[in-house]
Amino acid sequence: MSFDLNFIPPLMSAITGLAGVWLGGRIVNQREEKREEARLKAETSYAVILVIAHLDRLITRCVELAFDDGTTEGRPAGADYTTYEPTVQSPDFDPLALEVDWKSLPPDLLYPILNLPYQIEVLDNEVHDVWQNDDPPEHAEMFWTRQIGYAGLGLEISILAKRLRRHATLPAPESVSGSWDREMRLREKRTELERERAEAYARRVPVSIITGDSKTS
Q: Which regions of 40-199 does DSSP assign to beta strands (E)?
C-alpha cells in the first residue's frame, strides 16, 4: 500500500505561516505591554513627585503649627499683649486639585492622601471645641491639643511620603549636613508637650486622688 505524501509540504507551509502569525502577534503584544508598563511607571512617578512636593509643604506647615504656642517675639500674640492667640493658620490641602492620574496609585496609598483634608478638619474642630471651653488668657489646653495634634499629623504625613517614594522607587532625599530634621523635631516637640501637659494635670489634681489614697480622721 502506498501513501500520498503530497499534502505534507502545504501542511508544513500552513503550520509555518500560523507560527509566524502567532510569533508576530506575541512580539507586538510584548511591545504593547512594555509600552504600557513604561507609560504607567511614568504616570506613577509624576503623580508621586507632584504629591510629595505638596506633602512636603504640608509637613512644614505642621511643624510651624506644632511650635505655635500663641506668642510672638516672646510675648502673648493677642492685641492686648496678654491673650495667647494662634499665629499660624491651619493648612489648606486639597489633593483633588492636583492634576494627576489618581488611578496610578494603589488604594493603600491613595486613601490616606485623599483623607488628609478630613483629618485636618477633624483636628481643627477638636481645637475649636477646646478653645470655647478653655481658660483665657493662656488657653493652654487648646494649644496643647493643637500643637500635639499637628505634630502627630506631620509625622503621619512624613511616613506617607516615604511610602510613596518607595512605591515609585524614587531615591530618598539627600540629607544636608547641619539641616533641620523635621521628623526628629516633631517627635521631640510632641514628647515635650505631652510631658508638659501631664505635669500640669498632676499639679491640678491632689495626690490622694491620683494614687487612690484618702485621709481618714
A: 71-72, 75-76
